[in-house]
Amino acid sequence: MAKNVVLLGPPGAGKGTQAERISKKYGLVQLSTGDMLREAVKKGTPLGMQAKSYMDKGELVPDDVVIGIVREKLKELKNAPGVLFDGFPRTVEQAKALDSMLEEEELSPVMVIQMEVDDSEIIERLTGRRVCEKCGANYHVKFNPPQKNGTCDACGGPLVQRADDNEETVRNRLKVYHQSTSPLVGYYREAGKLRVVGGSGSIDEVFSRIDSILSSV
Ligand code: AMP
């Protein structure tokens, strides 16, 4: 049976990192709205120009815009073995839209894995995060430094800080998460779709918590 999975959690919980590993193991297609929006900003498309000011401030891009790009993408992914949603949905309105889009496309409903990490840990993780401009690999100045300062181990590309990873914007992203995204926990719990894992610990430890849930369904 096709599996559709939502990874829910604050920015910096490690959703992107875990999404990559889970997609690989279960053959799911990763759908990250953050990556799609950053790509649009980089290319300077009308979508990117619309999204940039929200992203730079750590605010959410309006629901209708994000729901529109997910709808388009889901049509392309109709025959995928399953989709792993990373960073979407982020509001109850997006979650409701996702439920109906999946139903319309006759795809299976989602199961949701919430990754829990304290705010203080999030701030340390995100402000120290560095990303390779060329291949997108993630590093951390303290927890996962590259061998050569400022250079990607994998491809030699330059490491940069994401525009929204400065402390002020990170604090705002957390505020937005608590206000707009955490109500999704109740929404999915009531629907019986929610599973919760601790998001602290090594990448391997967190992965094995998620893996033991997914391998049992
Ligand atoms: P992320 O890489 O998931 O942390 O997303 C980076 C930024 O993109 C967020 O701070 C938002 O501005 C925007 N964004 C990504 N996904 C969504 C979404 N589902 N709804 C609204 N805005 C989003």
**Rg, Cα atoms, Å:** 17 Å
Counting DSSP E segments of at least 2 residues, the number of strands comes to: 8
Which term fits the overall shape?
A: globular
Structural class: alpha/beta
The average pLDDT score comes to 94
- In DSSP terms (H or I, runs of 4 or more residues), the helix count works out at 9
Describe this structure in words.
This protein is an alpha/beta fold and 217 residues long. It is built from nine helices and eight strands. The strands form two sheets. Strands 2-3-1-4-8 form a five-stranded parallel β-sheet. A hairpin with a 5-residue loop joins strand 5 and strand 6 (138-140). Helix 2 (33-43) crosses helix 3 (46-57). The model has no long low-confidence stretch (mean pLDDT 94). The structure holds adenosine monophosphate (AMP). Adenosine monophosphate binds at residues 11, 33-34, 37, 54-55, 58-61, 66, 87-90, 94, 164, 173. Adenosine monophosphate is lined by residues 11, 33-34, 37, 54-55, 58-61, 66, 87-90, 94, 164, 173.
Can you tag this structure with a few keywords?
single chain, 217 residues, alpha/beta, 5-stranded parallel sheet, 49% helix, globular, binds adenosine monophosphate
How would the blueprint of this fold be written?
Elements: E1 4-8, H1 15-26, E2 29-32, H2 33-43, H3 46-57, H4 63-76, E3 83-86, H5 92-104, E4 110-116, H6 119-127, E5 129-132, E6 138-140, E7 159-160, H7 167-181, H8 183-190, E8 194-198, H9 203-214
Parallel strand pairs: 1-3, 1-4, 2-3, 4-8
Antiparallel strand pairs: 5-6, 5-7
